[in-house]
Design goal:
Chain lengths: 285, 265
């Protein structure tokens, strides 16, 4: 397989055009789910078909692409998507957060702060934040239309009633620009504060559900909560065993059969940069 | 207390019916759901609608409550035309000023959510954002409908039919609506549970000064709850009047049949 066998970045130009139109609309109405004609991609649903299509529509030959899966650059999903674009677009790839122009991510926002001009593409399994509360699509659309978001708080109420605190730890619902309630994809709620006021463009693609939504730079994003049970981003009460960071999101890794475990940064680039003594997020190629 | 009395006096002076329907018609193709129904419901009044199955009672109720759009007619709530309202305003009304008690509590409750969450949903829907306050009013309302406070975190799927129905009533009344629509509120319950529920409903309606439209085929229910009665047959109103008047001295042949059909024990 060579680059010439495919159009640049796999999708044909008309498809990219269609996706870009959806992206523009999504950016114009922050948090609103724009339907788009999602294509079959050469990977199974659930592997990031939505994110891949959005990335393909955004890439230019000059871009430097970074792909992470749960914060890591070297996991199956990240490696296969990165190689997919190496082959079909021939773009440069990197593991450095600060060095990348387009970052496709699954379930994390990188630790290193993003900057203007960067695009963060999220893979989204279920774009509808109300889905598990209201199964009817017609009804959830109407609820968005009429801003009937009381039900979202019922979910948080149930959390507190059952667990004494808001136990939702990922895919924590947010309200965008005081209008739409949005599912930030299954990122840990530790990452929720990074959604707000972020200088980068944040794009969300759901392939199976055929929806695109977006946060323009510096959007107002508020995590839903109660006055007497405010939102708190949570992380494991440990320092990273590899780099010693106390302010990063940690993975718990089981290291033997006797239950020993260690905590290490989920963002591998962040961790490697700190171990090498480089400034955050300027990891190796 | 004085303020409340003055409030009631002011409402009576205003002389605007709370709900006013005229010429309400709903067809299902060539068949008639209900035809040319009109009435005025005054603040604090309970209107009973009786009739046999298929007489158009439930169709009329869902038209009044804004769940179906009638083919013809006008419905005014507090002087405002309900049918001309944008949907957002109508749904806001349905969340705050109105309540709808379904015959089957499963239609009106969220079965996967705890009793407290069910009662609190309407509060959160109108903007309550303080957990403690929501919880307190949930406990208060569970008490008022005779559900033990320790059941607050149980799901309604574990409740008996009567408890589910009482929970549905609590969930509907928590925002202090002015108008309650009830569709066979005692249907499917055994008689002793029915009696307790009726007792409870009568107390709540009187204490809160609610206006209500109750659809039922059970004449005992309207005898206990309703001030006025409307008898429907084949989608049309055949007789209206004060409840006792209609039940004790029925004029229309169908009403006579209906009254004489009640089993005496």
């Amino acid at each position: 397989m060579t680059v010439q066998d495919y159009n640049f970045a796999y999708l044909d130009e008309q498809t990219k055009r269609m996706i870009r139109r959806a992206l523009l609309k999504a950016l114009a109405v922050p948090g609103y789910q724009v339907p788009f004609a999602s294509r079959e991609m050469p990977m199974p649903y659930g592997w990031g078909t939505g994110g891949v299509q959005v990335t393909a529509a955004c890439l230019t030959p000059d871009d430097r692409l970074k792909v992470i899966d749960q914060g890591a650059d070297d996991t199956t999903n990240a490696v296969s998507i990165r190689r997919f674009f190496q082959r079909t677009a021939g773009v440069e790839t990197t593991q450095s957060t600060t060095g990348a122009t387009v970052i496709q991510t699954r379930h994390r926002i990188p630790e290193a702060p993003l900057s203007e001009g960067q695009i963060l593409v999220y893979q989204v399994p279920i774009p509808e934040p109300l889905r598990f509360l209201e199964p009817r699509e017609t009804e959830t659309r109407r609820m968005h239309e009429l801003e009937e978001y009381g039900l979202m708080h019922v979910k948080l109420y149930e959390d507190i009633a059952r667990h004494g605190e808001i136990a939702t730890a990922y895919a924590y619902p947010v309200k965008v620009e005081d209008r739409y309630v949005m599912d930030p994809s299954p990122i840990p709620k530790f990452d929720n504060p990074k959604l707000a006021d972020n200088p980068a463009i944040q794009l969300f693609g759901a392939g199976r559900e055929a929806r695109i939504y977006a946060l323009p730079p510096y959007s107002r994003v508020v995590s839903l909560d109660f006055e007497d049970h405010p939102f708190t981003p949570s992380r494991a009460e440990h320092a990273c065993a590899l780099c010693g960071a106390t302010d990063s999101y940690l993975d718990e890794v089981i290291t033997d059969d006797r239950g020993s475990r260690m905590f290490s940064c989920s963002d591998t680039d962040f961790c490697a940069s700190r171990q090498a003594g480089r400034p955050d997020g300027e990891g190796g190629a | 207390m004085q303020a409340a009395e003055m409030d009631i006096c002011a409402k009576m002076k205003a002389e605007v019916p709370l709900l006013s329907a005229s010429g309400v018609t709903r067809r299902y193709g060539a068949r008639i759901g209900c035809a040319d129904v009109g009435f005025d419901l005054w603040p604090g009044e309970v209107l009973g609608i009786v009739g046999e199955s298929g007489s158009g009672k439930s169709t009329l109720l869902s038209c009044l409550a804004g769940q179906q759009r009638p083919d013809a007619g006008r419905i005014l709530y507090d002087g405002a035309d309900v049918l001309a309202m944008p949907e957002a305003a109508r749904r806001r009304l349905a969340r705050s000023d109105w309540a709808y008690v379904h015959q089957n509590p499963r239609d009106g409750l969220r079965m996967g959510i705890s009793a407290g969450g069910n009662v609190g949903e309407r509060l959160m829907g109108v903007g309550a954002r303080r957990y403690g306050t929501i919880r307190d009013s949930a406990i208060d309302w569970l008490g008022r409908v005779e559900i033990a406070a320790e059941r607050i975190d149980d799901r309604p799927s574990g409740f008996s039919g009567g408890m589910q129905q009482r929970l549905q009533i609590a969930r509907n009344l928590v925002t202090g609506p002015r108008l309650v629509f009830m569709d066979e509120p005692t249907g499917g319950l055994d008689v002793s549970v029915q009696a307790r529920l009726l007792d409870l409903l009568r107390g709540l309606v009187r204490d809160l000064g609610l206006s209500a439209v109750i659809v039922t085929h059970d004449l005992a229910v309207v005898r206990l709850l309703a001030d006025r009665l409307m008898v429907m047959k084949s989608g049309r109103v055949v007789e209206t009047g004060l409840t006792d008047q209609v039940l004790d001295d029925p004029q229309h042949a169908y009403t006579q049949l209906l009254v004489s059909s009640v089993l005496q024990v």
